[in-house]
Amino acid sequence: MTRFRLPIGGYIALAIAVAVMVLPLLWMLLASFKGQDEIYSLPIQWLPSSFGGANYQAAADAVPFGSFFLNSLITTVFGAGIKIVLGLMTAYALVFVEVPFRKFFFGLVIFALLVPQQIVIIPNYTLVASLGWLNTYQGIIVPGLASAFGTFLFRQHFLSLPISVLEAAALDGAGHWRRLWAFVVPMSTPTIAAVALVSVVTEWNEYLWPLLVIDRPNMMTLPIGLTLLQNTDGVTNWGVLMAGTVLVTLPILIVFFVMQKKIVAGLTAGAVTG
Amino acid sequence: MSTATEVVGAPAGVPRAPRTGAKKKRRGETRVAIYLVAPTLILLAVVIGYPVVSAIIMSFQKDAGLDPATGLFVAGGFAGISNYAHWILQQCLDTSGNTISCPPGNLGSQFWNATGVTFFFAVVTVALETAFGVWMAIIMNRTFRGRGLVRAAILVPWAIPTAVTAKLWFFIFATSGIANALLQTQILWTSDEWASRFAIIIADTWKTTPFMALLILAGLQIIPEDVYEAAKMDGATTFQQFWRITLPLIRPALMVAVLFRILDALRIYDLPAILTGGGGGTGNATTTLSILVVDQIRQGFNSASALSTITFIIIFIVAFIFVRVLGTNVVRTQQAQQKGAAK
To answer: Where in this chain does the record put each ABC transmembrane type-1 domain (chain A) (predicted)?
Structure first.
């Protein structure tokens, strides 16, 4: 049943699955080139009459997409980057170092996985506000850093690493810091790539928290800015809105297709075999 | 769990150092450990630990504001369990300060409705996503030309922002949108009570099934092929192979995936907030607990804290029941992996 050649029925099922996933996005892309009259035309007009960028121009004129993009980029790079480094350090300590109360620390990590955003959101908001961090990058980034997801996956992966290599490194006088970056990290690239992709996607898509701490348009991230596009005019101009969604989606799709081989390999190489 | 941790931990943690330096070594180890763990611990304490404690404390405080009886501004103070009573028993204060049941329109009166909506979404979406996820994972696990590309294409909906998903489906479900055009209907997908709920379920299933499929695929890949060969020899049908082999073997991975998804689904916010403006139908057909919390934040932190604490407890109970009844154990599964690694 596994890994056998696909029968004809399998190909049809596959085609349906891919179509269901991709067609709505294609519809979005097509609509982003259509004028208002083409979108409302009956019967349905499938293809736009031209592939001009008028809607994109209008979207970029209505809201500052450039600064949205920059804000998203900064929060994503720092947010995901710091999360990964912290996760690696913690997981390394939990697996390879004689940490006192090791089990207790791991329990904390599991607990952090269970805590829903709702309960921490209000105190974190008041904390961020009292620090004067509303409408700042650190206000968006810092409260999201305590993600236990990476630590959890890294720990599981580290447990499967060959201990002999690290013992040899230790005999050669490599300290823990060096053992982590020169031995453990290179041996864990698929898992790191997988965690990186999940973190990048999560950060890029983050909605509720930035919505609360940001109200100045010049500090908004792309998903928040997208809703601003809706609010600027009373009647929904679908073409412009869809152009906006394409602009928000495109960067993450590029990252995704560049890294997709790694993510599937990393997440399926026993990382989440949970 | 304890034995497994030690078996793997001990040889790594204590490299065969000369005996004389053992004590010094140990002190050094502790210091290194502290350096490595400290940043995360501090962060966890500041952005998870402190907020949880302070949310619980806040939930027992009165919201500062205008006293309905006197019209004067009053500072908060200890509220006892009145914030909880407000949500669970729908108790409000009337203009003369008496406890009455909340009038319709007050957020307090929406609590049970929001709880029901949240659970309805969670149960239906997770069930659909699990079923479709298993199906997709099985297809993706087979060998065929262009598998990498197909996997990527199927995963795309998961990668795009929920805000985009919501806008995209808002467009598809618009009154004169393609959904109505193809179905030849005039359904008010974003404002009718049940239609708007189904719109959210469809959008959520579309978005999250790929990730579910990926997690299940991870479980599928550890099943050795010869198990199926043997089953085929014994004349097992495809259905029997699925029911007797695939399902039991992916159960641990499946259960962890379902648990994570349920926890996620119980805090759904973005999709209903954007797709149906948080309301839908009569104004609260798609109001989930998270939306109610955010609405309440604008009216008073303390009462919102009580609501978020209730939500937390609900989620915790669900997770607890799930782990107990279905025997999902996030920790025990590592033992299995360690066993595999030790081979």
So the answer is: 69-259
